[in-house]
Amino acid sequence: MFLNRIRLSKTTQLQAYANKRKQRGSALVIAIFIIIVMTLLGTALVRMLSTEAESVAYEVIGTRAFLAAQSGMQWQLQQVFPLNSSATDCPVAFSTKDFTNSGVDGKGLKNCRAELSCESFIHTDGVRYYQLESTGICSVAEVVTSRKIAVDARSL
Protein backbone atom coordinates (compact mmCIF):
# COMPACT_ATOMS: atom_id res chain seq x y z
CA MET A 1 0.00 0.00 0.00
CA PHE A 2 2.75 2.36 0.85
CA LEU A 3 4.40 1.75 -2.52
CA ASN A 4 1.19 2.60 -4.35
CA ARG A 5 1.08 5.96 -2.67
CA ILE A 6 4.61 6.72 -3.72
CA ARG A 7 3.85 5.75 -7.29
CA LEU A 8 0.76 7.95 -7.30
CA SER A 9 2.64 10.90 -5.99
CA LYS A 10 5.40 10.42 -8.61
CA THR A 11 2.75 10.23 -11.31
CA THR A 12 1.15 13.38 -9.98
CA GLN A 13 4.52 15.11 -9.93
CA LEU A 14 5.20 14.14 -13.54
CA GLN A 15 1.80 15.45 -14.62
CA ALA A 16 2.38 18.73 -12.80
CA TYR A 17 5.80 19.05 -14.46
CA ALA A 18 4.26 18.35 -17.88
CA ASN A 19 1.57 20.98 -17.22
CA LYS A 20 4.22 23.55 -16.28
CA ARG A 21 6.07 22.91 -19.54
CA LYS A 22 2.85 23.54 -21.48
CA GLN A 23 2.29 26.81 -19.60
CA ARG A 24 5.64 28.38 -20.43
CA GLY A 25 5.26 32.02 -21.47
CA SER A 26 1.85 32.57 -19.93
CA ALA A 27 3.40 34.71 -17.19
CA LEU A 28 4.88 36.93 -19.88
CA VAL A 29 1.45 37.43 -21.47
CA ILE A 30 -0.09 38.23 -18.09
CA ALA A 31 2.72 40.68 -17.27
CA ILE A 32 2.27 42.50 -20.61
CA PHE A 33 -1.49 42.66 -20.04
CA ILE A 34 -1.00 44.15 -16.56
CA ILE A 35 1.50 46.71 -17.89
CA ILE A 36 -0.91 47.80 -20.63
CA VAL A 37 -3.83 48.10 -18.20
CA MET A 38 -1.75 50.12 -15.71
CA THR A 39 -0.54 52.42 -18.51
CA LEU A 40 -4.13 53.07 -19.62
CA LEU A 41 -5.18 53.80 -16.03
CA GLY A 42 -2.25 56.19 -15.58
CA THR A 43 -3.10 58.01 -18.81
CA ALA A 44 -6.73 58.38 -17.74
CA LEU A 45 -5.68 59.80 -14.36
CA VAL A 46 -3.33 62.33 -15.98
CA ARG A 47 -6.13 63.47 -18.31
CA MET A 48 -8.55 63.85 -15.40
CA LEU A 49 -6.05 65.93 -13.42
CA SER A 50 -5.28 68.24 -16.35
CA THR A 51 -9.00 68.72 -17.07
CA GLU A 52 -9.62 69.54 -13.41
CA ALA A 53 -6.80 72.10 -13.36
CA GLU A 54 -8.20 73.71 -16.52
CA SER A 55 -11.70 73.95 -15.05
CA VAL A 56 -10.32 75.62 -11.91
CA ALA A 57 -8.51 78.17 -14.11
CA TYR A 58 -11.75 78.92 -15.98
CA GLU A 59 -13.58 79.33 -12.68
CA VAL A 60 -10.99 81.79 -11.33
CA ILE A 61 -10.94 83.86 -14.52
CA GLY A 62 -14.76 83.79 -14.60
CA THR A 63 -14.87 85.13 -11.04
CA ARG A 64 -12.48 87.92 -12.02
CA ALA A 65 -14.73 88.77 -14.99
CA PHE A 66 -17.75 88.90 -12.67
CA LEU A 67 -15.89 91.24 -10.31
CA ALA A 68 -14.88 93.44 -13.26
CA ALA A 69 -18.54 93.63 -14.32
CA GLN A 70 -19.56 94.57 -10.77
CA SER A 71 -16.85 97.23 -10.54
CA GLY A 72 -17.89 98.66 -13.89
CA MET A 73 -21.54 98.73 -12.80
CA GLN A 74 -20.68 100.51 -9.55
CA TRP A 75 -18.60 103.07 -11.45
CA GLN A 76 -21.46 103.62 -13.91
CA LEU A 77 -24.08 103.96 -11.14
CA GLN A 78 -21.85 106.53 -9.43
CA GLN A 79 -21.75 108.51 -12.69
CA VAL A 80 -25.54 108.43 -13.11
CA PHE A 81 -26.40 108.92 -9.42
CA PRO A 82 -23.65 111.19 -7.99
CA LEU A 83 -23.53 111.78 -4.24
CA ASN A 84 -25.23 114.90 -2.87
CA SER A 85 -26.90 115.80 -6.18
CA SER A 86 -29.78 114.67 -8.33
CA ALA A 87 -29.62 111.92 -10.93
CA THR A 88 -28.29 112.85 -14.35
CA ASP A 89 -28.91 111.54 -17.82
CA CYS A 90 -26.60 108.78 -19.08
CA PRO A 91 -23.23 110.49 -19.60
CA VAL A 92 -22.24 108.13 -22.44
CA ALA A 93 -24.37 105.43 -24.06
CA PHE A 94 -21.48 102.98 -24.47
CA SER A 95 -18.08 103.07 -22.82
CA THR A 96 -15.26 100.79 -21.74
CA LYS A 97 -13.53 100.84 -18.37
CA ASP A 98 -10.09 99.21 -18.55
CA PHE A 99 -8.82 97.96 -15.19
CA THR A 100 -5.32 96.99 -16.36
CA ASN A 101 -3.93 100.52 -16.04
CA SER A 102 -6.31 101.81 -13.40
CA GLY A 103 -3.52 102.87 -11.02
CA VAL A 104 -4.52 100.32 -8.39
CA ASP A 105 -1.64 98.32 -6.96
CA GLY A 106 -3.68 95.12 -6.71
CA LYS A 107 -3.42 92.70 -9.58
CA GLY A 108 -6.91 91.25 -9.13
CA LEU A 109 -8.38 92.81 -12.27
CA LYS A 110 -5.27 92.88 -14.45
CA ASN A 111 -6.12 92.07 -18.08
CA CYS A 112 -9.80 92.80 -17.35
CA ARG A 113 -12.16 95.42 -18.69
CA ALA A 114 -15.83 96.30 -18.36
CA GLU A 115 -17.97 97.25 -21.34
CA LEU A 116 -20.74 99.53 -20.13
CA SER A 117 -24.02 100.60 -21.68
CA CYS A 118 -26.64 103.02 -20.38
CA GLU A 119 -30.08 103.93 -21.68
CA SER A 120 -32.49 106.32 -20.03
CA PHE A 121 -36.05 107.29 -20.83
CA ILE A 122 -38.83 109.24 -19.17
CA HIS A 123 -42.01 107.30 -18.54
CA THR A 124 -45.49 108.81 -18.88
CA ASP A 125 -45.55 109.44 -15.12
CA GLY A 126 -42.57 111.82 -15.48
CA VAL A 127 -40.05 109.53 -13.78
CA ARG A 128 -36.70 108.86 -15.48
CA TYR A 129 -35.82 105.17 -15.81
CA TYR A 130 -32.36 103.74 -16.50
CA GLN A 131 -31.27 100.45 -18.02
CA LEU A 132 -27.63 99.80 -17.24
CA GLU A 133 -25.52 96.85 -18.40
CA SER A 134 -21.96 95.95 -17.55
CA THR A 135 -20.05 93.11 -19.19
CA GLY A 136 -16.81 92.11 -17.48
CA ILE A 137 -14.25 90.53 -19.79
CA CYS A 138 -10.98 88.98 -18.59
CA SER A 139 -8.33 87.27 -20.69
CA VAL A 140 -5.29 85.27 -19.69
CA ALA A 141 -3.25 83.74 -22.53
CA GLU A 142 -5.88 82.24 -24.87
CA VAL A 143 -8.58 81.94 -22.20
CA VAL A 144 -11.23 84.67 -22.39
CA THR A 145 -14.26 84.76 -20.10
CA SER A 146 -17.08 87.26 -19.71
CA ARG A 147 -19.89 87.89 -17.24
CA LYS A 148 -22.81 90.29 -17.65
CA ILE A 149 -24.75 92.27 -15.04
CA ALA A 150 -27.88 94.30 -15.77
CA VAL A 151 -29.54 96.86 -13.49
CA ASP A 152 -32.84 98.69 -13.93
CA ALA A 153 -33.01 101.88 -11.85
CA ARG A 154 -35.17 104.97 -11.53
CA SER A 155 -34.68 108.46 -10.25
CA LEU A 156 -36.49 109.56 -7.12
* Rounded mean pLDDT score: 82
Shape: rod-shaped
Spatial strand arrangement across the major sheet = 1-2-3-4
Number of DSSP helices? 2
Instruction: Kindly give the count of domains.
Output: 1
| Low-confidence parts | none
| Main sheet characteristics | 4 strands, antiparallel
Work out the number of β strands. Answer: 4
Distance between the termini: 116 Å
Task: Tell me roughly what share of residues is in helical segments.
Answer: 40-55%
> Which H/E pattern describes the elements?
HHEEEE
Helix-strand category: alpha+beta
Strand content: 25-35%
Keywords: Membrane, Transmembrane, Transmembrane helix
Protein name: MSHA biogenesis protein MshP
Structure write-up:
The chain is an alpha+beta fold. The protein contains two helices and four strands, in the order H-H-E-E-E-E. It has one domain. The protein has a four-stranded antiparallel sheet with strand order 1-2-3-4. Strand 2 and strand 3 form a beta hairpin. The longest helix is centred in the middle third of the chain and has 55 residues.
Describe the structure concisely.
The protein has 156 residues and is of the alpha+beta class. The protein has two helices and four strands, in the order H-H-E-E-E-E.
Topology:
Layout lengths: L1 H21 L3 H55 L13 E5 L13 E11 L5 E13 L2 E12 L2
Antiparallel strand pairs: 1-2, 2-3, 3-4
